[in-house]
Amino acid sequence: MATTGRRSTAARGLGRDEEKLGRELLAQMQLIRRFEEKAAEMYALGKIGGFLHLYIGQEAVAVGAISTLRADDYAIAGYREHGHALAKGSDPRRLMAELFGRRDGVSKGKGGSMHLFDKSVNFLGGHAIVGGYLPIAAGVGFAIRYESRDAVILCFFGDGSVPQGEFHESLNLAALWKLPVVFICENNRYAMGTAIHRALAQTEIFRFAEAYRIPGEACDGMDVLAVRDAVGRAVARARESGTPSLVEARTYRFRGHSMRDPSTGLYRSKEEVEEEKKADPILTFRDRLLREGLLDEAGWAALAAEVETRVGEAVAFAEASPEPPAEWLVEDVYA
Amino acid sequence: MAVITYREALNHALREEMERDERVFLMGEEVGVYGGAYKVSQGLLEKFGERRVIDTPICESGFTGVGIGAAMVGLRPVVEMMTFNFALLALDQIVNHAAKLHYMSGGQFTVPLVIRGPGGPAHQLAAQHSQSMETYFYHVPGLKVVRPTTARDAKGLLKSAIRDESPVIFIESEVLYGVKGEVPDVADFLIPLGVAEVKREGKDVTVVAYSRMYYKVLEAAEEVEKTDGISVEIVDPRTLRPMDTATILASVRKTHRVLVAEAGAGFAGMGSEIAAFITEEAFDDLDAPVARITGANAPMPYARNLEALKTPSKEKIVDAIRRVCAVL
Predict the structure, then answer these.
(1) Reported pTM
(2) CB-based contacts of B70: which residues, under 8 Å, 6+ apart?
(3) Nearest chain A residue to B67, by CA
(4) pLDDT digit string (tens) for B175-234?
(5) Which of residues 104-123 of B touch A (CB under 8 A)?
């Protein structure tokens, strides 16, 4: 099950009958990409404040993984979570309004970019303490088991979470109690500016699964189908037998850690970033669909135009939404 | 009225709430097979089984987070800290997650979680096992903090805490587990959170005290009544956050003098906050400055003689009452 190479070989191609699926995966990745490029513009204009961590380059992980879920399954993520919320089905208009800090935001403008929550689609946040929410994912798995349901939770985190104690406590508890949690490490090789070999004694992250006697697998996080296959296997195990898994999706962040961080310079070279961009998960998947005849140029143009419309609507909605009223400051402190 | 121990009162509260609501479960170190390090959960595993009484490995951050996650999606966990000293390992879970998820999600998610276990000074357990931990929690918006004093409080407040929709930090006292008290026999005895109790009526001075300090203040009150004729009113806040300031202020407006007795280190302690709101709200009613008697600003020492000096003694409380009443 384990893959030792830098990335696994590409997953099987799509059959003709999966034409629709291919387009959906591509459309979701494109929506995340354009939503975030637009968010970066809005940040530059001062309409979005605080920290803004872009997911650009990693879209295949959230989209491929979440494409394996049912509506009653859960997802939880860190602070680079715009993509996960969108893939889980959250309304881009309400997500953009949250980034703007407006009253129609998913979290009523109180959370911001790092705290997107959407109960209507079982998206559990939006957490800004590295590794801190991994035990919470285990707790959701505990509740699923307690109630004898067959739902699962996907827990997304970066390579920066792996040295944290919570990673190890959560894997141990999930393995010990057979909790239906799929731990998905998005290994983009840098925890902020710290390269993985400077942070971890074991840089093949999927191997930590062996310590907890659960299945571990690495996959090409730049290939949406490879992620879908690996996570699909893990979801099936979790659903059928409550077996947790650790999936390491090897990916790359094209932008800086946050908007305040230049994408290259101190900790990685421009050449490295340019080289990685050749594996752009959207362009490579689009080209593959074109090559395999599952999409034509007109189809791509229509898909891209539809995404532009949705992103435009999201910004217009956010702009039109009022600021939260002053009395909301002290509401929702206690339930 | 049944006369039972503080420990039994907690056990009964857990038992009743687990019987009443299938979503309530107990999780923590040694709560099941061992029956609880302090035997609070004795018999619960036998009654409710392993599904609802869950022994955890030693990983406070991990199992506290499990409680938070389970609460977010509809369960009502009771997480036991073997002692509250260990809760610091879970402080990020409690402060950054449990306390804030309701707010950060714009009210979408709730965390109906109780974290309970013993805290406060104990007997010769030294610096890491004998300290007042409430300070670390009552500062945080989003948390409720309870410190029950009697068996009656323990039962009524724990049942209310389990039914509360917000996370509740419920700090018991290991030196009170064996103390007996009357607990009403009524089927569903509840004490609401956020309501103080005047535990002893008096007219000359108000003393605010909770948990173990209440019993020391009670002894001191009986002594000054005999020796000095001072009539002491004792107010037990019971819930530290939200605090029932109205009951404390009403007592101060009656007696015009107030002493806050606190086991923990005094700097930025509970007494500081109580002194502040009394000064803000009832300054003109005071005949003397608000007085505090607190634990020393030092970690808890092991040596018996030094330990006795660390926490306010009955004698020191007697002196403090005399001072605030200007008879010293």
Answers:
(1) 0.96
(2) A139, A140, A142, A143, A146, B25, B77
(3) A139
(4) 999 999 999 999 899 999 999 999 999 999 999 999 999 999 999 999 999 999 999 999
(5) 104-112
Report the candidate in A48, A44, A55 with the shortest Cα–Cα distance to residue A113: A48
How large is the ipTM?
0.96
Residue ranges per structural domain of chain B: 2-183, 197-324
The listed CATH number (1.20.1290.10, 3.10.105.10, 3.10.490.10, 3.40.50.920) that belongs to domain B197-324: 3.40.50.920
pLDDT recorded at residue A16: 67
Residue burial A39-77, b: 16+ Cβ < 10 Å; e: rest:
bbebbeeebbeebbbbbbbbbbbbbbbbbbbeeebbbbb
Q: Which domains does chain A have, with CATH numbers?
A: 16-319 (3.40.50.970)
List residues of B with catalytic annotation.
60, 129
In CATH, which superfamily holds the domain spanning B2-183? Thiamin diphosphate (ThDP)-binding fold, Pyr/PP domains (3.40.50.970)
Shortest CA gap B228–chain A (Å): 45
**What average pLDDT values come out for chain A (335 residues) when binned by 10 residues?**
45 72 97 98 97 97 98 98 98 98 98 98 97 98 98 98 98 98 98 96 98 98 98 98 98 93 85 96 97 95 98 98 98 98
Which chain A residues in 48-87 lie under 8 Å from chain B, judged by CB atoms? 74
